[in-house]
Write a structure and sequence with these properties.
seven-stranded mixed sheet, 10 helices, elongated, signal, DUF4440 domain-containing protein, ClpP/crotonase-like_dom_sf
């Protein structure tokens, strides 16, 4: 069974990352009557192949015990340098974040093979890779964490805002993540992977910079479709040809170059990321939206030019969500601007909205501006909010 799970790597799959010249070469699954010559060692959703001591395969979903299993695998096999993300559709947000931080702190590499996918909470793990390469499908969407409530939910929000940029994730990628409803999934095209610098492999590039038609969306609960075949492109240096090892001398390894640490994210960018996420969170179900809304506000807020306690704001939001149970908010990322002083940040921007009430047979669409003042010292909570509809 384990051999079948790993068979998706295909004949001749190769990987060379961060000074590591290991080659993954799995043959197609054999008939059940023929036993595998090697049995992988299993650590929950992680699989270790003794013949490939630098690799660890992360299969299936992000679950409650993954951090413990990962630590055990790394402790028993200190040669592991790269995490292979194999058909991992995500799962528990807070576990994905702590696994990602472990990957980042240990300087591990991450890789999504062809004909495979890594989505939702799995994407956090991918982005944390010191060197990272997505040849398969990478999917993101808004954070949706029913397992988290109260302070735990805010932990997820603030961590995404503060740590993904630390991993070298661009504001454009965060904007796509925040603007994709939690019940959908945005899969990056090969062209977008190149455009947004998602792969981090020295000077290599794995997609052509020709115009893209937009990434596909699919419900996160359904299996990710097979990757669309990208146009013919040069093979990255340091990787053997697609047919497998050629037997010739290996190319110079570009991953040996010294990495420059990502620049520290500014308070302004943190505030912009947080504000975008706060707007997009309203696109979730009433329950999801309220779970996050409860954590967005300070105890007292200058709310539409009037001082109000948090309880009144929550009642107002709950009434709005009940009136318009179907909502879609999309922030114009280019409109976002922030100015900060002593970790108090004013953020302004524009977003499009589309809301409806099937029960009442009513709908509304338009564009609105917004202004937030966020207190970064108090977990990015809103201390001032104002907005105005500018077109309907």
């Amino acid at each position: 069974m384990l051999k079948t799970k790993l068979a998706a790597f295909g004949t001749g799959l190769a990987l060379s990352l961060a000074g590591m010249s290991a080659v993954v070469a799995q043959t197609p699954a054999q008939p059940q009557t023929q036993k595998s010559a090697e049995e992988p060692e299993r650590y929950g959703p992680f699989f270790y192949l003794p013949s490939q001591p630098s690799l660890l395969v992360y299969v299936g979903a992000v679950g409650a015990n993954d951090m413990l299993n990962l630590k055990k695998a790394l402790r028993e096999h200190p040669t592991i340098a790269t995490i292979i993300l194999q058909n991992n559709g995500g799962g528990l947000v807070h576990i994905g974040l702590v696994v990602a931080e472990e990957v980042y702190e240990r300087g591990l590499n991450t890789y999504i093979p062809k004909d495979s996918y890594c989505a939702s909470a799995c994407s956090f793990v991918f982005f944390a890779g010191r060197q990272r390469l997505a040849e398969g499908r990478l999917g993101v969407h808004q954070i949706s964490a029913p397992e988290l409530t109260g302070e735990q939910a805010q932990f997820g929000v603030s961590d995404i805002v503060a740590t993904l940029p630390k991993y070298g994730v661009s504001a454009d990628v965060l904007g796509i993540m925040f603007s994709t409803p939690s019940k959908e999934m945005y899969f990056f095209t090969p062209q977008e992977i190149a455009k947004y610098g998602i792969n981090r492999t020295g000077n290599t590039q794995t997609a052509q910079n020709n115009p893209q038609q937009g990434a596909a969306k699919a419900p996160p609960s359904s299996p990710a479709p097979a990757p669309t075949q990208a146009p013919a492109q040069p093979q990255p240096s340091g990787l053997p040809p697609q047919g497998g090892p050629s037997g010739s001398a290996p190319a110079a390894n570009p991953y040996m170059k010294k990495e420059t640490a990502p620049a520290a994210i500014s308070d302004e960018q943190k505030a912009i990321n947080a504000a975008a996420l706060m707007i997009q969170a309203g696109s979730g179900t009433n329950e999801e939206a309220m779970n996050f809304t409860r954590e967005f506000y300070a105890a007292n807020v200058d709310y539409f030019k009037k001082k109000r306690p948090k309880s009144e704001i929550l009642a107002d939001k709950q009434a709005y969500f009940a009136r318009w149970p179907v909502r879609r908010f999309v922030v114009d990322q280019s409109s976002l601007k922030a100015k900060c002083k002593d970790q108090m940040c004013m953020v302004v921007g524009i977003y499009d909205y589309k809301v409806s009430s099937p029960e009442r047979g009513k709908s509304a669409t338009g564009t609105s501006n917004f202004t937030y003042v966020l207190d970064l010292r108090d977990r990015y909570r809103i201390v001032m909010e104002d907005s105005e509809v500018i077109s309907r």
